[in-house]
Amino acid sequence: MISSTISPTTRIWESLRPLLPSRGSDCDYWWKYTGLHLAYLLEAAGYSTERQYEALLFHYHLVVPYLGPAPASDGTFHWPTVNTIQGPPVEYSWKWNTETGAPEVRYTFEAVDKFSGSPKDPLNQGPSRDMLYHIASAYPSVDLAWMNHFLATLFDHDQHRYAQEQDDEQITTTVMIAAEFVEPGLNIKSYLKSRRLGMRDVPLEVYKQAIFQACPTSAAATALYDFLEDDPEGQLLTPAILGLDCVAAPNSRIKLYFRTPHVRFSTIHTIMTLNNRKAVSASQTESLRKLLAAVTGLPLDFPDEADWPINARFRDLVHKQSAKVPLVYPACGFYFDIAPGREIPNVKVQVPLYVYGQEEQQLAEGVSQWMKDNGRGKFADQFLKALPRLGDRGTAHGPDRVKGQVVNGVHANGVHGNGVHTNGVHANGVHANGVHENGVHENATNGTKGMDASGKNGVHSNGTNGAHAGMPRGLQSYLSVMFTAGDQLEVTTYLTPVLSETPWVA
């Protein structure tokens, strides 16, 4: 269990706090809130003092000014971001350590300003462009050539017509940025969701043409396109987003994100191996099965061809959220890394924990126990201790809210999430979950008999309100998994900042 004694801040945060000047109420809000979250994660992941300072100062100077207005007094956002349920513009991720390494802390954000969504900037791309150029001026390794190419080829260039379309259908996130704090420095990534005038869903061909112009020869892209055309599971995938590393083209990667309309273990395995085009060992497959059982609560012998049941809290979310279109859907996302020089794509599955995961405590303990069972548990306890800190429970110097009261103009009863619309974008915080045309499955189960983290039979209550008192619901949003060399799995947990009680809790 998680210790009830949680430090309200970190040593690095405390040393910086009196030295960084106020820059207005909006910046102060986001710095005290997201900066403190970042400090918690960096400390838990064992970053050196020097790297913690570097990451926090990067965030303060180059990210916080672009996070837009603080939430209104009723909890709503000027521009709700699609990759978080409540709408804040930041999502964190914890890339789990290998047996000999340490975790990597990452986060994804959407730049916002007062013109976001207005006729001047209906696609909200201006702040992201501005932010990226400021980052590139500070970090010479950041290269925006491919970013500029894809901005020019994945979108039309008629702001007036985009604004007109917005009158009939809300236009939301089209650009997100990610920062990874890795050795020896910083990686910047960008994610683009194409939007074409007159098109609700942009076809794959638009992405293919843009990729071909940037990278005419790619064996990995050819392998992906063949799978999408020839394989029954591949034919069901629909494109969601394009990602790229903001470095010079020879070293950059292009990643295509897709969503699938159903979730079965057989589907996940087929797509991750490109129907056995990509060699994966039996031990890796079994390891994946155990990890997914740990997060879903399904028994290890759950049929490979059966659809996964949806948890009850997802039904609550769909019923109670006020967005015109649900934020998350009953399906999985996949990304395909088709970097130049690669013969076959690396493939990553992204499981929406809102939809298929257990309650927060069980989720966190399940993944942590899997790490310990696989010789990777060195940071598991630190992870468990850090999670409650990401819920807004009244931190010493962060946004101080008490449910039912307004403190400093911020309402405590939760964010309404209105106006959020998505076709399924999110990896590194950008997730490509799918759209289910028939609405919510009715085969969700409460109390599904499954395997607990230690491998013993137990009963998991997927749909209860029994989250740990210090761990708010909706905190763990996605789990991504990729087969890697040495019979290993790369595992990342995505974490959504919870402003107060999540909107689907009564």
From TrEMBL:
A GO molecular function term, named singly, is: prenyltransferase activity
The UniProt entry, under InterPro entries, shows: ABBA (IPR033964), ABBA_NscD-like (IPR017795)
> GO annotations under biological process?
alkaloid metabolic process
An example Pfam family from this entry, by short name, is Trp_DMAT
Keywords of this protein's UniProt record, alphabetized?
A: Transferase
Q: Which domain of life is it from?
A: Eukaryota
Family membership noted in the UniProt record: Belongs to the tryptophan dimethylallyltransferase family.
* The protein's name in its UniProt record: Uncharacterized protein
